[in-house]
TrEMBL record, chains A, B:
It comes from the Bacteria. PANTHER family: NITRONATE MONOOXYGENASE-RELATED. Its cofactor is FMN. GO terms for biological process: response to toxic substance. GO terms for molecular function: nitronate monooxygenase activity; nucleotide binding. The lineage of its organism: Bacteria, Bacillati, Bacillota, Bacilli, Bacillales. Belongs to the nitronate monooxygenase family. NMO class I subfamily. This is Probable nitronate monooxygenase. It holds the Pfam family NMO.
Length: 353, 353
């Protein structure tokens, strides 16, 4: 069914189904390995991971699968905030900290060497595939990874960003439509003007690229995967579909929220991290609306809200958690990762078109 | 290729390709008839049309085709604005009127009997198909049209709106994804939370409906039409693809703008009509940004900006015109309507998936 598919050859996988490298503990080694063992590409979401944790996770994955897998990392940014701006952003968060009984105000903490240290681990561990979000890494790093035979996946939210990814040497690129859950990968165009729906983004990107293309955004089942290929992609990346699966490390409240929500509830918010991301609206998102200007830039805001998100999960208060979800939550299911992959493959074969 | 397609049977057409009933003079009788003669469903965009103009256009279409065609009308709203609000909205428009040499301030003019009079014409002329935007008409009107054997198409931007359309007796419904050009058809959910991408909207609606489903939003070619069907729709509605075609009555500046723009330039604005609509950003859209609260509700704002839009077209000033476009302008072509339909049919046959 996937004849002449360059992506399968490039990634050395059986089915053009990629599990997105979601950060925040969703992508357990068990999840990543289950997807890879089922013939797709599992991906460790290492965006915020400390190098030592990342190393452990990679070794955990290797213990569970002999198939290729990927690791996703975030291309870093180094924003600046004045003491006054930090104070204002903290004051906005005060009511939530009080509600949860969190005492201290937080100074944003950013490890400026994180990315380089992560890259070193990827090379040491010779991971098969590395994907990037929030930009394209420096040419030196691209070359180092390529020299090790690591396949590189870029992320684009516009045609221009996709072309840049190809020009800089990415082996394949994910075109992330506006339906996608979690963070927007936008790095070149303005956020507002980069909310391109998957139906529009994929064929327009496909017309411009020479490297294989992976569609993302709103894809949850065989219909979405096959539609992606019809639109000109070589495969599809699914995030939300795997958040609710058995092996996912997502908080139970997060899984439940996705399984019981509607497409209209998955909104874009900058309130958790400073970068636009799609998640299920709740008290935190609503209360922060209208205060956009006082939020710190990513990743400073992310650092400020970390304690709130963690404590909210502990106290079972989903109204203060980041509940990332794409726009197709009605298609979510609580099954094993292997079953998701298998049912997609079976469904794509059945579809009449 | 379109075996067992209920939509083809319902509309009595050969190909599941519907030309959207765009208002503002785009849908000339020549365009509507060309699409219907090619085996799709042409649609007259009669949203703002006076009954007598509408009647003439319908008769013009009948002279050019024996095949079924549709007429699109807007379900009316009756908003109110105080003198003060009208004054403020007019002051916002002053710089544009000055620039174009338009003298008088405008009182918003709304014909409250327009919709009923339009319905009467549809019945008199026994049009084959009628489609609605901005809501569901009263039950009495639905019954009157059905009694005449007129097939009814509703518009939905969320799953909930699609279900309402079925419950109220529509024969089929267009699921309008966020990629779509022109006005959002939203009538039940909030505008912000109804920007659901086509890739997400179509399968989630398909799972809930018993009537045939038409996908819309970002669809421009055979890839989009076939992807729509893979996602669970029975056909696709295309707007922007037909704006640039030879028979379209769109202003030359509008056609040129679509043919030469990028997906990132097609933004949502309320500035022209009071309702959110997607068009190519220009001076007017940018200058009106940040003044959202001072805009009148639809259709009052539409009435206020009419003179500006008209005069701008006359003076060849596209920077003040409404340049409606979906998010796939890179796929637009300047060919005949028949060629668009034929190339879609040919392409859907060629696609490997």
């Amino acid at each position: 069914m996937w004849n002449d598919n360059q992506l399968l050859e490039l990634l050395n996988i059986h089915h053009p189904i990629i599990q997105a490298g979601m950060a925040g503990g969703v992508t357990t080694p068990a999840l990543v390995a289950a997807v890879s063992n089922a013939g797709g590409l599992g991906t460790l979401g290492a965006g915020y991971m400390k190098p030592e944790t990342m190393k452990e996770s990679i070794q955990g994955i290797k213990d569970l699968t002999k198939s290729p897998f990927g690791v996703n990392v975030f291309v870093p940014e180094n924003p600046y905030a004045t003491e006054k701006e930090i104070g204002e952003a903290n004051r906005l968060l005060e009511p939530f900290r009080n509600e949860l009984g969190i005492k201290e105000e937080t100074k944003p903490q950013v490890d400026e060497c994180l990315f380089e240290n992560q890259i070193n681990i990827l090379i040491e561990e010779r991971v098969p595939v590395c994907s990037f979000t929030f930009g394209i890494p420096p040419k030196g790093i691209i070359q180092d990874l390529k020299n090790e035979g690591i396949v590189l996946i870029g992320t684009a939210t516009t045609v221009e960003e996709a072309i840049l990814n190809e020009q800089y040497g990415m082996d394949t690129v994910v075109a992330q439509g506006s339906e996608a859950g979690g963070h927007r990968g936008t790095f070149s165009n303005s956020y507002n003007q980069s909310m391109i729906g998957t139906m529009s983004l994929v064929p327009q990107v496909a017309d411009q690229l020479n490297i294989p293309l992976i569609a993302a955004g709103g894809i949850m089942d065989g219909r979405g995967v096959r539609a992606s290929i019809v639109l000109g992609a070589d495969g599809a990346q699914l995030g939300t579909a795997f958040v609710t699966c058995k092996e996912s490390g997502a908080k139970p409240q997060h899984k439940e929220a996705i399984l019981h929500t509607k497409e209209t509830e998955a909104v874009i918010t900058r309130s958790f991290s400073g970068k636009p991301a799609r998640g299920i609206t709740n008290t935190f998102v609503k209360e922060m609306e209208g205060h956009e200007r006082k939020l710190l830039d990513y990743p400073l805001q992310n650092s400020l809200t970390k304690g709130i998100r963690k404590e909210a999960a502990k106290q079972n208060r989903p109204e203060f958690m980041s509940l990332w979800s794409g726009q197709s939550p009605r298609l979510s299911r609580s099954v094993s990762a292997a079953e998701i992959v298998q049912s997609i493959v079976a469904q794509t074969k059945r579809i009449k078109s």
